[in-house]
Amino acid sequence: MGTKPHNDPLHLTASRIRGIFNGGIRPPQAAGEGERSTDPKDGRENLAVTRVAGWPMTTQRSRRFRAQWPLLFALASLGQPLVAADASKLVSGVELPPLEVKALSGDLAALPRDARGHPAVLIIGFSKAAAEISRAWVERCRSAAAARPDGSGVYCYDVRMLEGVPRLFRGMVERRMRSSYPVNLQRQTLLVYSENDAWRQRVGAADEKTAYVIGCDREGRVRGTAVGQFLELELKKLLEAIEPMPPNRE
Questions:
Q1: Ordered structural domains, the chain, with CATH
Q2: What is the DSSP secondary structure assignment for residue 25, as one 8-state letter?
Q3: What share of the chain is helix, strand, coil (3-state, %, to 5)?
Q4: What is the pLDDT of residues 23-51, one digit of tens each?
């Protein structure tokens, strides 16, 4: 004998709850708007019946269900990614939002705190395809930083947005990356497993397959941005914006 479906609205399955809010099933009707049925034995009309999520509900039960609607909305929202309230697009002059993550080396990293006193360039990628474009930016940024006068100390961060990587595979991904990087570069390779959507909004990410570059001054304030394939002129402009080269005295 099959099990009868439970009629209590609080026992709705998660999939049915989400179905209600995704438009698959309409919300309960107001009292008196439901279907009415007639007792086949004596022809008397029963109480108004509203069908919700496939189950018949009397007017009394429908009222009770409507009272629980906010709870069901909260349940349906569980598991949905939340975007940080301050995820507005970054513009010149604003302070870089806190980024507290794990570096590829295994150390904890926090920006802009860790770069305080140094100009910094963040090269951000949201996919494996973007990593190919980011690599050119990172390598050229580090080469240009090394060629600058002593004391300028530009930090070039390779920022990988990896929230979409399943937890089960994250360790494997990190080990593979670690085998290709010397330790000093691992410390400036940041792995971001949360709030990726917030950063998409901050950099205006319309294309997941390209690089997004942010330049910050010594105080951690954004001074310039760039998007797309590496261009020497773009990097030069960005470095000049965050740390102007001293005049050449000969």
A1: 9-77 (no CATH), 99-242 (3.40.30.10)
A2: S
A3: 35, 20, 45
A4: 444 444 444 444 444 444 545 544 444 44
